[in-house]
Amino acid sequence: MDTSGKTSRVRVVVDAMGGDFAPQETVLGSLEALKIADIELLLVGDKQSVEEELSKHDYDASLVTVVASVDKIGDDEHPVHAMRSKPEASIIVATKLLKSGAADVLVSMGSTGASMASSVMILGLMDGLERPCIGGPFLGMSPKTMLVDMGSNVDCRPSLMLSFAALGTAFSRTFIGLDNPRVGLLSVGSEEAKGNRQVQECYKLFEDSHMNFVGNVEGMDFFTDKADVIVCDGFVGNILMKFTEGLGAALGSYLQKGLSSQMNNAQSESIISDLWRITNLPRKMGGPLFGVNAPVVLGHGSSKADGVAGAINTAVRCYDLNLVDSMRSELSEVTALMETSG
């Protein structure tokens, strides 16, 4: 999307029916973002339900538009089949608004598969890319270290993972602010020969690329500042992310029992809240969809209002920083390498 004609307010289209707690939390979170960001909102969903939620809050009505949709796509539905049978579903209507230029960014807490499918089919992929991916920081204690892919592609050829590394490099440089991000390949050991066939084939491609490749990294290196962009396929990435979420919840429960006799509720809840925050960063800021031709941020399905607001803030920042253009530029260098070597 051409961002040269930016307006003063970023126009955010939200799939108001997406997520486990929609539309209550999606509407509330959108309005929370409206209080702190220079944005306009387009809330897509069942008009009566969305307007009913809006009526519970005070807000500047001139900055909020409700766009009616007929249906929504659930997590249990096949994304492509559902898009064909539900052409007026909220995520499809929202994506078309972004494509048409009526909005600048899209945010959804709904079905990841449906959000990705509608983005690919309506917005299109960047030149030279086979599939999009989801990436970003995922540990609050290491906020400058990012993971890609977080779960959108469970089977990846080495060439696709090289593309993901390029997209992650652009994100790290543009969004996080690192001049020359270090790229690491997640493996079972730091030596070049370690890893399965996929990792070993990736190693050679990464080594020959223009990126600042530092070799294989291990799971513990998310905490050692060895790499800024850690690359794996979505199968491994999603397991890693959900393990971290589960670990945070389990430790929180364990600590709550132990701390209850040693400090008051406010103190123990503060510690538990901090632990949850550092192990659940994607729930607070969403995950940008890398590789499509406009800014799209996907949130966790169980996100409450603060997660919705965080995802909106992430999307606005992606737009302000021209992240899509940065990714196109980085990806073009990888595409040129693959054409030369292939």
Radius of gyration: 20 Å
The low-confidence parts are 1-5
Number of domains: 2
Counting helices, strands and paired strands, the structural category is alpha/beta
What about the largest sheet? 11 strands, mixed
Task: Name the strands of the widest sheet in spatial order.
Answer: 3-2-1-4-11-10-5-6-9-7-8
The number of strands is 11
Helix content: 40-55%
Distance between the termini: 30 Å
Order of helices and strands: EHEHEHHEHEEHEHEEHHHEEHH
Question: What is the CATH level 1 assignment of the largest domain?
Answer: Alpha Beta
Shape: globular
- CATH-defined topology of the largest domain: Isopropylmalate Dehydrogenase
CATH-level-2 architecture of the largest domain: 3-Layer(aba) Sandwich
* Count of alpha/pi helices: 12
Strand proportion, as a percent range, falls in 5-15%
Multimerization state: single chain
Give the integer mean of the pLDDT values: 90
Relevant CATH superfamily of the largest domain: Isopropylmalate Dehydrogenase
